[in-house]
Specification:
- With 548 residues, this protein is of the alpha/beta class.
- Among the domains are: 53 residues, Oligo-1,6-glucosidase, Domain 2 (Oligo-1,6-glucosidase, domain 2, Alpha-Beta Complex), CATH 3.90.400.10; 84 residues, Golgi alpha-mannosidase II (Immunoglobulin-like), CATH 2.60.40.
- It is 27% helix and 17% strand.
- The strands form five sheets. An eight-stranded parallel barrel has the order 1-2-3-7-8-9-10-14, surrounded by four helices.
- The structure holds 1-deoxynojirimycin.
- The site of 1-deoxynojirimycin has 9 residues, from loops.
- This is Maltose alpha-D-glucosyltransferase/alpha-amylase.
- One of its GO terms (biological process) is carbohydrate metabolic process.
- It holds the Pfam family Alpha-amylase.
- One of its GO terms (molecular function) is transferase activity.
- It comes from Actinoplanes italicus.
């Protein structure tokens, strides 16, 4: 098995504010999370990715940081955080945190100082222009909620650059002091005991922005510097980057032209995410096959992080207009389900009509495809969304723990909750909650526990190669395999409602004692690989061989 822990990890992503509230003030906190670590350990999670934990005015769910060296007082203290790291480690769970250093909040003392005077030591920490940049209406990330990327600041009497909302001024990566500060922030948290960072908005961090030049050069060298720094401070620390860019750009994020993986360890596989959703919508395997074929080869140590849902909208911008239309039609037909013209602001269960078979199929696919799986809190119990909330808040409602008031999330008055708990109807906490599913061995939660246990017996998935197997099969059935020094696994997934059959005889010689290790139903043991059946929306994980 690979000694790189992240290739065998199961990552669970959560927002502290909406996970568990221990003191009844309506906002989730670190102590609440500590109280739920046993739940996460039982689920099989081995790494938590915490959405921003720092003090913040909270205008972008914490992605507008006002102090990088502390935790949001609503969540607790640094002492509580150290305790969390200790308690998580006791259960074999690592913790990585969001590192949001493309920008700060406009309330950050650095920005307040920078705007106040040309002599401020922080003036050059941000990106300014004396005149209105000609490209100020280009490159917005949140169309509809943002109409420019340069805003005039009356105090500074200058324009400042902000790739995201105007309350998120970009830091100036060209300034060596900024680079040094980012390294210091990383070192601080590593010293406390985090195992790495989910790096926010990496393509924008390394942008060497100049007013009027929307095609600014990218400073990939900074990623090599940062990797080296992080690795010296903690040898097993990992960088997991958000870089939603064209496939041909991806290799540069992993490493330099020499072919060594000397930059980011793991990148979210945005392309596979969009193609998976398209494949599920069309009930056609072709988009997944395309994604497996078209993604670049990774340098040694490079790893994909796969996901179906995260805390943002599902970004369909890399699909063609026609593909996007098909996905919208199936999974986000109403305007209120869509966001920024490019995405869907729904959880997976409502997207799939709360169809248990399709949910299992989708997550079986995600967890068996190459890379390290990342699971968003609440998906394991099939939580729904609240489309009455603004933008991405629809999918950021509190975790549903039980049938207690507020779904067991908090004892506060419902009007004081950070966001309302989903109540009533098929996704309300009365129906969908962790306690109820714990007591039901046929629940989605129990299925996730079983599936993750099986994943842990299948190191080939995280550490091995992942290839599409081209055998005679109907359009809706995908066959892929994972190979590593430990053995070989084969996976059959039926994206369509119609039961089907695949001819695996060409692989027979390669399989020693083929048997199902996970499947949607009991199938007769394959014994040898020939023609095998798979039910509508069915799946089979077949161990072909074990060598170590
Ligand atoms: C990407 C994060 O995922 C998103 O939630 C946030 O709004 C932007 N970066 C800005 O930090």
């Amino acid at each position: 098995m690979s000694d790189r822990w992240y290739s065998q990890a199961v990552v669970y992503c959560l927002d502290i504010d909406s996970f568990a509230d221990s003191d009844g003030d309506g906002c989730g906190d670190i102590r609440g999370l500590i109280g739920r670590l046993d739940y996460l350990a039982r689920l099989g999670v081995t790494c938590l990715w915490l959405n921003p934990i720092h003090p913040s005015p909270g205008k972008d769910d914490g992605y507008d940081v006002s102090d990088f060296y502390n935790v949001d007082p609503r969540f607790g203290t640094l002492g509580d955080f150290a305790e969390l790291l200790h308690q998580a480690a006791n259960r074999g769970i690592k913790v990585i945190i969001d590192l949001v250093v493309n920008h700060t909040s406009d309330q950050h003392p650095w920005f307040q100082s920078a705007r106040s005077s040309p002599d401020s030591p922080y003036r050059d920490w941000y990106v300014w222009s004396e005149t209105a940049p000609s490209d100020r209406n280009q490159g917005m990330v949140f169309p509809g909620e943002q109409d420019e990327t340069w805003t005039y600041d009356r105090t500074a009497k200058l324009w400042y650059y902000h790739r995201f909302y105007k309350f998120q001024p970009d830091l100036n990566i060209k300034n060596p002091e900024v680079r040094a500060e980012i390294k210091k922030i990383c070192a601080f948290w590593l010293q406390l005991g985090v195992s790495g960072f989910r790096m926010d908005a990496v393509p924008f961090i390394i942008e060497r922005t100049e007013p009027g030049d929307p095609t600014a050069p990218m400073d990939f060298g900074f990623l090599s510097e940062l990797r080296q720094h992080v690795q010296w401070r903690r040898g097993d620390a990992v960088l997991l980057a958000e870089a939603n860019v064209e496939p041909e750009m991806l290799p540069g994020y992993f490493g330099d032209d020499g072919g060594s993986g000397n930059r980011i360890h793991m990148l979210f596989d945005f392309m596979l995410n969009a193609k998976l959703v398209l494949a599920l919508a069309r009930q056609d395997t072709e988009p997944i096959i395309d994604a497996l074929r078209d993604t670049p080869k990774l340098p040694d140590g490079g790893q994909w992080a796969t996901f179906l849902r995260n805390h943002d909208e599902i970004d369909l911008s890399r699909l063609t207009a026609e593909q996007r239309k098909d996905v919208f039609e199936k999974f986000g037909p109403e305007e209120r389900m869509q966001l920024y013209g490019r995405g869907i602001r729904r959880r997976l269960a409502p997207m799939l009509g709360n169809d248990r078979k399709r949910l299992e199929l989708a997550y079986s696919l995600q967890f068996s495809l190459r890379g390290t799986p990342v699971l968003r809190y609440g998906e394991e119990i099939g939580m729904g969304d609240d489309l009455s909330l603004d933008g991405r808040n629809a999918i950021r409602t509190p975790m549903q723990w039980s049938q207690l008031p507020n779904g067991g999330f908090s004892s506060a008055d419902p009007k004081d909750l950070v966001r309302p708990v989903i109540s009533g109807g098929e996704f309300g906490f009365e129906q969908v909650n962790a306690t109820r599913q714990r007591h039901d061995s046929s629940s989605l939660l129990s299925w996730f526990e079983r599936m993750i246990r099986t994943l842990k017996e299948s190191p080939e998935i995280g550490s091995g190669s992942c290839t599409h197997v081209d055998v005679p099969a109907p359009r809706g059935i995908l066959v892929h395999r994972a190979d590593a020094a430990t053995g070989a696994m084969l996976f059959v997934h039926n994206l369509s409602a119609k039961a089907g059959e695949v001819d695996l005889s060409s692989l027979a010689e390669d399989a020693e004692f083929p048997n199902d290790v996970l499947a949607d139903q009991d199938y007769p043991d394959p014994d040898k690989l020939d023609s095998i059946k798979v039910g509508g929306y069915g799946y089979r994980w077949i161990r072909m061989r074990r060598t170590a």
